[in-house]
């Protein structure tokens, strides 16, 4: 048996480090755990926590290759964050000029959700619990 326990982290490569750092820390409210500059790679590595759990690594690299990122493109579809009040969360994002899709209802769970994007167009979801 492989023995997987949980997801350790999610890695995201951004094109504008300062813009993405502001988005994930100031707008989404993730906690900055550690920031490292790796001179030999001309790369930052920012460790972020979601509600006290270290989960996201934000990387910067010079000239990263573009990747299709629409939710229906092959590969990772999107990253979803659980929220308690989807209207308040959408209002918060909109107050920063971040567009969100209309709130939808999951036909199987009855839960409400919406999509928005990070500064590089990575599809993100808010899912109300």
Q: Features of this protein?
A:
129 residues, alpha/beta, 2,3-Dihydroxybiphenyl 1,2-Dioxygenase, domain 1, 2 domains, 4-stranded mixed β-sheet, 2 helices, 8 strands, 16% helix, Glyas_Fos-R_dOase_dom
Question: What's the short story on this structure?
Answer:
This protein is an alpha/beta fold and 129 residues long. The protein is built from 2 helices and 8 strands. 16% of the residues lie in helices and 37% in strands.
Beta-strand proportion:
35-45%
- For the secondary structure, the number of strands is 8
Query: Secondary-structure element order, as H and E?
Result: EHEEEEHEEE
Percent of residues in helical segments?
10-25%
CATH topology of the largest domain: 2,3-Dihydroxybiphenyl 1,2-Dioxygenase, domain 1
- Overall mean pLDDT: 91
For the largest beta-sheet, the strand count, sense and barrel status come to: 4 strands, mixed
The CATH class of the largest domain, by name, is Alpha Beta
Shape: globular
CATH architecture of the largest domain: Roll
Give me the side-by-side strand order of the main sheet.
Answer: 1-4-3-2
The unreliable regions are none
User: Which structural category do the helix and sheet elements fall into?
Assistant: alpha/beta
The helix count comes to 2
């Amino acid at each position: 048996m492989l023995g997987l326990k949980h997801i350790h982290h999610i890695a995201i490569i951004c094109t504008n480090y300062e813009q993405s750092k502001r988005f994930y820390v100031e707008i989404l409210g993730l906690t900055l755990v550690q920031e490292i500059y790796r001179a030999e790679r001309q790369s930052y590595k920012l460790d972020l926590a979601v509600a006290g759990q270290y989960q996201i690594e934000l990387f910067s690299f010079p000239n990263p290759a573009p990747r299709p990122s629409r939710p229906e493109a092959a590969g990772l579809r999107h990253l979803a964050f659980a929220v308690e009040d989807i209207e308040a969360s959408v209002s918060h994002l909109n107050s920063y000029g971040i567009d969100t899709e209309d709130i939808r209802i999951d036909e199987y769970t009855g839960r409400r959700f919406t999509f928005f994007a990070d500064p590089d167009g990575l599809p993100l979801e808010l899912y109300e619990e």
